[in-house]
């Protein structure tokens, strides 16, 4: 019996140690949840991608800008406050705003003053146009997309007005329908109450409910549900619930959807283990009691043999007590066995529920990820345009300074180059200035030699028009590291030729691409079989342009084909221009790129010729590409 009781003590010690581990894990989970909640609050304080740029400016930054813009501000104040504001916008602004701030901070005082006066406003407009373009591409329903496109065709005031309201024909009916659907599927009282109140109110009330109210009400309902579930479970469920209550709102939803079932399963598995240990201990105690009873029965028989009637009666009572105790232990063992079975059933059911809930949560997460990916893609696209535009502005500024112009003139040259690049942005709503239809005034497909390759890309590579534009700009971005070709980069048209088939399908490059930029030796080694590319290994601008474009390919084979084609372009250009200086002079006179990764390659027999008009106008090179 002593051994059985010792086993009982060991089981209890193990349970106490397990409870201590649960408490420690709970405290760690709560601490992590609080940290995530703090991070969530910081993220919520930052404006969403679709919010107008001016609304993303913090109060501190706004005060700095007001001080810099004050009519009586002296030049030193303008520069000092302007630089501080630009530093702040590096972390909160949109892609264009960040690039504009960086351009100002890396420039002279004249660049900062110009940024305060014009530059940041130009960048803010481009960021806002990019946001509206994102809605025009991905918004639901169709009427919202059409309204976004209409705003893009208008003035900047139209763009800001749309971002502020996102209004479209039929919006109120759609919003009331969405609110009604939320009400119908609501399970908590707070959401139901908020939905009913909104539907009884104005359209503004409904919009407020859809944009913020429903989430606040749902969080309240979720907290109540978490507390209710915690009260009905084991220690692991209680710990998971406490962590959920301390974390951001998604912790509550995750707990209700999946976390509670996983915690219930762990509690049930632990209960199975505990019940099984108890069963074994009780069986041991039952066996010990039975053995004790047998010993008392033997002692009773011995006492009877000695005619010790009183002693025999005492042993008989002890044997009977041991038998009763053994029966009690047997019942307890059976109860533990049944508890183990019940806990195992609960664990199995909890595991199944958790799997089903996890599958549903994954589906919801995938849908959310698609929306997030679309927003990220729009931000990346805007960033690519901004990078290209401000690179051109920086080169124009540097060229002006090297030409002996003062800092004010250099800043003006940079601004002029920036505006020129903005005017050349593709007509996908990501940044074209309102009212600017290009040189032919129409802005329609019939007169735009770039429209055909957009359609080809969309059909052949399952890319959107906007993504196709980014890829074309990426390719153009490495054509020629001179200011001349950079300012012309947005108007190169690759209507036909093998280049398109060899290059245009975007995703990622080689894992060592970062080293290719940082280390010329590695760059040269990577392209050692491509002599014309390797020749430019020491040219950092060249390496950066190569990397920016080649990172877009899906696999190594596509990368190698594109690199070989670039090398071939460069080699042919070197031979042709080397033999016929007339071609070189003519190409430079026309503003065509003659150096860098991909130069214009004139036809050996015909030289440079103007080809046709309309979508066929331009200069056709030896590869059948047209450059306009």
What does this structure look like?
With 628 residues, the chain is mainly α. The chain has four domains: 2-46 and 233-370; 53-165, no CATH class; 171-227; 447-627, no CATH class. It has helices at residues 2-45, 59-69, 75-92, 95-105, 109-138, 142-152, 156-165, 171-185, 189-199, 203-230, 235-246, 249-305, 309-402, 407-423, 451-461, 465-476, 483-488, 498-503, 513-518, 520-526, 531-534, 540-550, 556-579, 581-589; strands at 492-493, 619-620, 626-627. Strand 2 and strand 3 (626-627) form a beta hairpin. Helix 1 (2-45) packs parallel to helix 11 and helix 10 (203-230) packs antiparallel against helix 11 (235-246). The model is unreliable at 42-47 and 428-516 (pLDDT under 50). Residues 432-447 have a biased composition (Gly residues). Residues 31-59, 326-372, 425-452 are annotated as: Disordered.
Question: What is the secondary structure topology, with strand pairs?
Answer:
Layout lengths: L1 H44 L13 H11 L5 H18 L2 H11 L3 H30 L3 H11 L3 H10 L5 H15 L3 H11 L3 H28 L4 H12 L2 H57 L3 H94 L4 H17 L27 H11 L3 H12 L6 H6 L3 E2 L4 H6 L9 H6 L1 H7 L4 H4 L5 H11 L5 H24 L1 H9 L29 E2 L5 E2 L1
Antiparallel strand pairs: 1-3, 2-3
Helix pairs in contact: 1-11, 1-12, 2-3, 3-4, 3-5, 4-5, 4-13, 5-6, 5-7, 5-13, 5-14, 6-7, 8-9, 8-10, 9-10, 10-11, 10-12, 11-12, 12-13, 13-14, 13-16, 15-16, 23-24
């Amino acid at each position: 019996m002593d051994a059985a009781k010792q086993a009982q003590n060991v089981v209890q010690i193990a349970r106490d140690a397990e409870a201590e581990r649960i408490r420690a894990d709970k405290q760690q989970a709560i601490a992590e949840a609080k940290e995530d909640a703090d991070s969530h609050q910081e993220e919520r304080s930052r404006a969403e991608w679709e919010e107008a740029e001016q609304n993303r400016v913090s109060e501190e930054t706004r005060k700095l800008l007001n001080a810099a813009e004050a009519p009586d501000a002296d030049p030193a104040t303008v520069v000092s406050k302007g630089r501080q504001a630009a530093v702040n916008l590096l972390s909160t602004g949109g892609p264009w705003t960040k690039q504009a701030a960086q351009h100002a901070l890396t420039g002279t005082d004249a660049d900062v003053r110009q940024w305060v006066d014009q530059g940041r406003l130009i960048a803010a407009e481009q960021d806002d146009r990019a946001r509206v373009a994102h809605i025009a591409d991905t918004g639901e329903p169709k009427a919202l997309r059409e309204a976004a496109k209409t705003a893009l065709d208008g003035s900047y005031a139209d763009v800001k007005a749309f971002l502020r309201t996102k209004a479209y024909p039929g919006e109120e009916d759609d919003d009331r329908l969405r609110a009604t659907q939320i009400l119908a599927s609501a399970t908590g009282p707070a959401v139901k109450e908020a939905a009913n109140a909104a539907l009884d109110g104005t359209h503004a009330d409904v919009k407020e409910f859809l944009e913020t109210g429903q989430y606040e009400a749902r969080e309240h309902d979720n907290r109540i549900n978490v507390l209710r579930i915690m009260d009905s479970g084991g220690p692991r469920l209680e710990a998971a619930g406490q962590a959920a209550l301390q974390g951001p709102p998604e912790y509550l939803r995750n707990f209700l959807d999946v976390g509670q079932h996983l915690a219930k399963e762990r509690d049930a598995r632990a209960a199975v283990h505990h019940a099984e240990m108890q069963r074994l201990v009780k069986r041991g105690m039952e066996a010990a009691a039975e053995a004790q009873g047998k010993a008392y029965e033997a002692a009773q028989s011995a006492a009877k043999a000695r005619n010790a009637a009183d002693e025999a009666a005492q042993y008989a009572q002890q044997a009977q007590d041991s038998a009763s105790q053994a029966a009690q232990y047997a019942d307890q063992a059976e109860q533990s066995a049944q508890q183990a079975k019940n806990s195992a059933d609960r664990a199995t059911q909890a595991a199944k529920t958790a799997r089903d809930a996890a599958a549903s949560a994954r589906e919801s997460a995938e849908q959310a990820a698609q929306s997030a990916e679309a927003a990220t893609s729009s931000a990346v696209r805007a960033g690519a345009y901004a990078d290209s535009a401000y690179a051109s502005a920086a080169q124009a500024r540097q060229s002006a300074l090297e030409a002996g112009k003062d800092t004010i003139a250099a800043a003006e040259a940079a601004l002029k180059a920036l505006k020129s690049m903005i005017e050349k942005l593709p007509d996908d709503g990501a940044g074209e200035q309102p009212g600017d239809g290009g040189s032919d005034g129409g802005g329609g497909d019939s007169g735009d030699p770039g429209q055909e390759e957009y359609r080809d890309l969309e059909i052949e590579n399952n890319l959107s028009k906007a993504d196709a534009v980014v890829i074309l700009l990426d390719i153009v971005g490495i054509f020629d590291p001179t200011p001349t070709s950079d300012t012309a980069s947005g108007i190169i048209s690759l209507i036909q030729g093998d280049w398109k088939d060899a290059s245009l399908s975007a995703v990622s490059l080689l894992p060592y691409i970062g080293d290719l930029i940082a280390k010329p030796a590695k760059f040269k080694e990577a392209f050692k079989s491509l002599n014309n590319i390797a020749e430019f290994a020491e040219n950092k601008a060249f390496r950066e342009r190569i990397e920016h474009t080649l990172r877009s390919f899906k696999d190594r084979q596509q990368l190698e084909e594109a690199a070989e084609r670039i090398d071939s372009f460069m080699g042919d250009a070197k031979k042709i221009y080397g033999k016929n200086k007339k071609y070189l002079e003519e190409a430079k006179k026309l503003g065509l790129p003659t150096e860098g990764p991909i130069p214009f390659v004139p036809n050996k027999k015909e030289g440079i010729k103007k080809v046709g008009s309309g979508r066929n106008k331009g200069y056709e090179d030896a590869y059948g590409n047209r450059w306009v």
